[in-house]
Amino acid sequence: MTPKQIDAFCGKLPAATRTVQWEGVIVFKVGGKMFCLIAPEEHSVGRISFKSAPEHYDALSRSPGFRPAPYLARAKWVSVDDPKALSDREMKAYIKRAHAVIAAALPKKKQAELGL
C-alpha cells in the first residue's frame, strides 16, 4: 500500500480521527489515543508506524521489514520503512489490529460514546 492508501484506509476505521503533528507526521487516533503514524520520507519516526499487540511486539519488531518505532518502542510500537514490503492485506490487518488494541484499552464509557 502507498502512504496515501494507508491514509484513506485509516480514515475509514471506526471513530478514527486524523491530525498532522511533528513536522508533517499524519497521526491517526481513536478516542484521542494514537494507533498509526504516516511520516514524510526520511522522517526519524519511520515511514509507517503503528501500535503492536503487546504479545506480538518482540517477534514483530525483529521481523524482516520491521523495526522498533523510534520514540514509541517502549509503548510496543513498530515501524515499517518501506510500506511496499508488506502486502495490502498484511498492512491492513496490522493497522486494524493496532486500532483494535487502542480501542479496547479505552474506558468502557469512552468506547460507548464512540460506538465501539
What can be said about this structure in brief?
With 116 residues, the protein is α+β, with helices and mostly antiparallel strands. Helices cover 34% and strands 25% of the residues.
Lay out the secondary structure:
Layout: H1 3-11, E1 16-21, E2 25-30, E3 33-38, E4 48-51, H2 57-61, E5 66-68, E6 77-80, H3 88-105, H4 108-114
Antiparallel strand pairs: 1-2, 2-3, 3-4, 4-6, 5-6
Structure description:
It comes from Reyranella soli. This is MmcQ/YjbR family DNA-binding protein. InterPro entries: YjbR (IPR007351), YjbR-like_sf (IPR038056), YjbR/MT2646/Rv2570-like (IPR058532). The protein has a single domain, classed as Alpha-Beta Complex (Aspartate Aminotransferase, domain 1). The chain is globular and about 40 Å long. The longest helix is centred in the last third of the chain and has 18 residues, at 88-105. The protein is built from 4 helices and 6 strands. The model has no long low-confidence stretch (mean pLDDT 91). The protein is α+β, with helices and mostly antiparallel strands. 28% of the residues are buried.
Number of H- or I-type helical stretches:
4
Structural class: alpha+beta
User: What is the CATH level 1 assignment?
Assistant: Alpha Beta
Order of helices and strands: HEEEEHEEHH
Radius of gyration: 13 Å
Average residue pLDDT:
91
Strand content: 25-35%
Q: CA-to-CA gap between the ends?
A: 26 Å
Reported CATH architecture: Alpha-Beta Complex
Largest sheet: 6 strands, antiparallel
> Strand order across the biggest sheet?
1-2-3-4-6-5
Helix content: 25-40%
- What is the fold-level CATH name, i.e. the topology? Aspartate Aminotransferase, domain 1
